[in-house]
Amino acid sequence: MSDAGPALKEWPPVELIAELPPGTEVIEITPSGASARVQTVRVQTRQKDGTTKDYFKKSQSGSVGQRMMVGTFASEKAFYEYAPQNIPKPIAWGNYRSNEDMWFYLSEYHDMVDEVPDPQQFVSIIVKIHQESMGKSPTGKFGFHVPTHLANIPIDNNWEETWEKFFTKAMKRMLELEELSHGKDDEEFEELKEKLLTKVIPRLLRPLESGGRKVNPCLVHSDLWPGNCMPDADTDEIMIFDSCAYWGHNESDLGSWRAPRYRMGKPFLREYQRRMGMSYPREDWDDRNALYAM
Prior knowledge:
Order of helices and strands: HHEEEHEEHEEHHEEEEHH
Shape: globular
Strand content: 15-25%
Number of helices: 8
Helix content: 25-40%
Structural class: alpha+beta
Number of strands: 11
């Protein structure tokens, strides 16, 4: 993938201008944010009425780039439906006619402050999304209608009847990728993997769907760390982005909050419990959270 400079000289491709309001004039393109996997830019424009408006574009080449942009658009569009004030509005995805191997995602741009969000304000948004989307999985199952990427990791979102089966499949895939990266000669890793898949996951997740209980799928972001949840510099509204959506157990969205490096932890978890409650068995809550944090 080329760096930002050369790509900017090719701007603006006709394909992107076609996605913007008629009469839009591009004023300036500047790098936006930092990513090791995609190219990200801020597009400053002048509208037909003379006002200015900014957009965000990310792009990547090849079949991986296509899957990433399709997944990003579908995922962000799903979240925008439930929290339009807190999700940068998705506009389009596609490829360039001048370079059919280059794929892009386009959304509205928000200038954001790089800081950990306020627990009450942030958690209230997540609870609202979870509550309002719960029970609205288009199939009633666990998964998503297109593949998505968690960073550069492709996620198998094929629909599953039970939460345990969907989560086990996802975790198994993560472990397989770990083995591809570091090799398969670690006997301790193999033993831990086997115990995780055959003992730990069934012990912690099967009770959620036993004894007449069931998990009602809701829309899950799956990457809720401070780098993806920042206050808008102009409105103070918390903006949430870079989702890797699937329909799953609401508590699985809280795993990243446990990591000390994200400076979220107990204040966020307690606020979520206060507003949303805990799934049964309640005594397994902390262990489930530790599992979801892996």
